[in-house]
Predict the structure.
Amino acid sequence: MIGPVALRDLAIAACQRAGFHRIGIVPIEPSKRAATYQAWLAAGHHGEMTYLASPEHVAGRADPSVLLEGARTAIIVALAYGADAPPAPGPLRGVIARYARGTDYHLVLRDRLREVADALTAVAGPIGARVCVDSAPLPERELAERAGLGFAAKNTMLIAPGLGSYVVLGELLLTAELAPTDGKPERSRCGGCRACLDACPTGAFVDAFVLDARRCISYLTIEHDGAIPVELRAAMGARIFGCDVCQEVCPWNASAPERTTPAVELTARDLDHVWPDLERLATIGANQLRGFVRRTALRRIDRARLQRNVAVALGNSADARALAPLAALVTSPTALVRGHAAWALGELGATVAAARAPARALLAAAATVEADPATTAEIIAAAALLSARDDHR
Ligand code: B12
Ligand code: SF4
Ligand code: SF4
C-alpha cells in the first residue's frame, strides 16, 4: 500500500504537471474563522447571496469534513491569471475584471484538479475525492492561508508573495491521508499600508479585512439582481463585470506580473473581453451574446443584468456618442434595463452639455409609453436632474 509521503509526492508532481502556480496540502480540520464568517453573515454583509447563509454552507465553512464522507486531506492550489491590461482600443468601452477575461476559472480549475485526482487513483486505487472551486461551502482563503500559499490581506484577498493576489483558488478534498506540505500560515504582511481601503470607489470596506459585499462593484455587477442603488452607480465607472481596484493599487501586485506566466486559458480571450464594446453590447442579439460569454465567467449573468451594467457604464462615459446606444436601451423590453438607461441619460445630459437636449427628448418619449412604476420614477428623476442643470447654467 502506498503511504502518506509517497502520496503527497505523487500529488505534488501531478499538480505541477497540471500547471498550478502554488500547491499546499493540509489535513482537514475545523475552521478557525467560523465565528468571523458567521459574524459577517449576521451583519448582512452577504446581501442577496443567501446561499452563503444556508445550513449546508455554514456547516461546510465551519468544518470541511462534512463535504466528503471520510475526508482527511485537502490539496489547495492557486492559479495565476493575467494582470496585464492593454490600452483601450477606442471610445465607449467597458471594463471586465481580470479574472473573467479568459475561460471561466471554475472550468479550468475543475478540469485540472480532476487530472490530479485521476493521477492519484491510477496509482493508489480508489480514493474518495471532491473538487471544490468557489461555490462549494469551503473557506478557500483560510485554507490557502493555512497551507502556506499566502496571507490574508486587508482587502480580504489571499496574497501569494511572488504572485500577488491575481490568483484563483481551488481544492481537492480526499479520503486518503497525504503527508502535509511544509508551508506555514503567515501573518498579514500589509503593515501600515491601507491603499486598497482608501481606493475602493464605493467605500465597501467596513474595516481592514471586512468587506460589505452590498457596496462592492463585483457584487453589484455580478451577484445583485434588480436595481443598483442610485448612490453607487457613478462610482462603478465603466466596470460592467467585477472590479479590480483594490488589487490594482496593492504594492504586492506591482512587480508580480513580470515574475509569472499566467495560465493560458485564463488570459484574455481578446480585446473585447478586456474592454467590451458598450455600443455593441447595448444592441447585441441573443446568438451573438451566447458566443461572447461562452465558457467565460460572464455567462453567470443574464442579458438583463449585463445590459443594466452597460447602461450605467454609458451613463458614466461623459461621451455624447453614448446617446445612440442609450436610445436603444431605454426602449428595451426589460424594465430594469430601461430604468438604468433613463438614469444614464440623465447623467450624460448633466455632464455633457451637447447631450442634454437629445437626452431630454429621449426621456420625454420614454415617459409617454412607460407603464412600469419604478422605471417611471427613474425617468422623472433623470428629467429633474436635467432641469436642475438648466437652472444652474
Ligand atoms: C462571496 C464571495 C465574494 C463576495 C464577497 C467577497 C468578500 N471579500 O467577502 C463578492 C461578490 C463581493 C466577491 C468579490 C470578489 N471575489 Co469572490 N468570493 C466569494 C466566496 C464565494 C466566499 C467569500 C466569503 O466567504 N466571504 C466572507 C468573508 C468573511 O470570508 P473570506 O472572504 O474567506 O474572508 C476571510 C478574511 O476576511 C479573513 N479575516 C477576517 N478578519 C480578519 C482579520 C485578520 C487579522 C486576518 C489576518 C484575516 C481576517 O477571514 C475570512 C475567512 O478566512 C469566495 C470563495 C470561497 N468559497 O471562499 C470567492 C473568492 C474569495 N473570490 C475571489 C475573487 C477572485 C473575487 C474578486 C477579485 C472578483 C473580481 N475581480 O471582481 C472580487 C474581490 C473583492 C474582494 N476584495 O474580496 C477569489 C479570491 C482569490 C484570492 N486571491 O483571494 C475566491 C477565493 C474564489 C476562488 N475560488 O478563487 N467575492
Ligand atoms: S472589488 Fe472594487 S468595489 Fe469591491 S472592494 Fe475591491 S475596490 Fe471596492
Ligand atoms: S493595498 Fe496595502 S493594505 Fe491593501 S492589501 Fe495591498 S498591502 Fe494590504
